Amino acid sequence: MRIEKQSVLIADNCPLICETYQNIISKIARLNPNFSFNTDITYNCNGAYDIVKKTIEKETTLNFIVLDLKLSPSNNRKILSGEDLGLLVRKLLPSTKIIICTDCNDNYRIHSVFKSLNPEGFIIKNDLTSKELKNAIKNITNNIPYYSKTVLSLLRKEVSNNFSIDSLDRKILYELSLGSKMKEMPNYIPLSAASIEKRKRHLKKVFNVKAKGDRELILIAKEKGFI
Q1: CA angle centred on 15, ends 127 and 103, rounded to 5°
Q2: Chain segment 158-188, per-residue pLDDT in tens
Q3: What number of other Cβ atoms are within 10 A of residue 80's Cβ?
Q4: How far apart are the first and last CA of the chain?
Q5: Which among 3, 21, 28, 220 counts the fewest CB atoms within 10 Å?
Q6: 203: which residues sit within 8 A by CB, 6+ positions away?
Q7: Positive or negative, the Cα torsion across 194, 195, 200, 201?
Q8: DSSP string covering 110-143, please?
Q9: Right CATH number for 167-223 from 1.20.1250, 3.40.50, 1.10.10, 3.30.1360?
Q10: Secondary-structure class of domain 4-156 per CATH
């Protein structure tokens, strides 16, 4: 009997959730002797990046990653969220499949993630059960996408076609949420102050923010899960 070995990374802020995911994955292996899983766990972007780097250095394979969008930022501010980590995985390990597991259910946010990452699996945590995760893993190991019912419902809803929020926009929102001044931002974002200001105006337009200050923009961005 040929055993298919799968390398898995679980990346979520909550240790209990990571342990639960690991137990579910282990159960899949126990019930299906054709599969064997080697699972790593991390709770932040720093740890996840270290595992990705080791995978590349050792020339091994990372079959899939179970990823929370609200992963704690890296210390150098270069990887701010699970989405940024996913983009890095897409670039450095293009064959790795991504399952997003998130509590964010904002329509704009979901569509934005699909535009940037196009994940093989996408589950809203309110839909998450052991059966749901098992089905997602079984599907993607067979090259079949898997989206939970809330994700499918949100994808059917139309959103404005002119909205576009990329990684630089999210970095601007993050710096604003930290209280960074506009003159300081070019130290952290590879753009001029004028370009950053232009992007901030675009973000206010996207989120329909009329106020002159940044407080309302930050609050709405947090509400929608972009920070």
Answers
A1: 30
A2: 665 556 788 899 999 999 999 998 889 999 8
A3: 20
A4: 47
A5: 3
A6: 165, 169, 172, 173, 209, 217, 221
A7: positive
A8: HHHHHHHT--SEEEEGGG--HHHHHHHHHHHHTT
A9: 1.10.10
A10: alpha beta
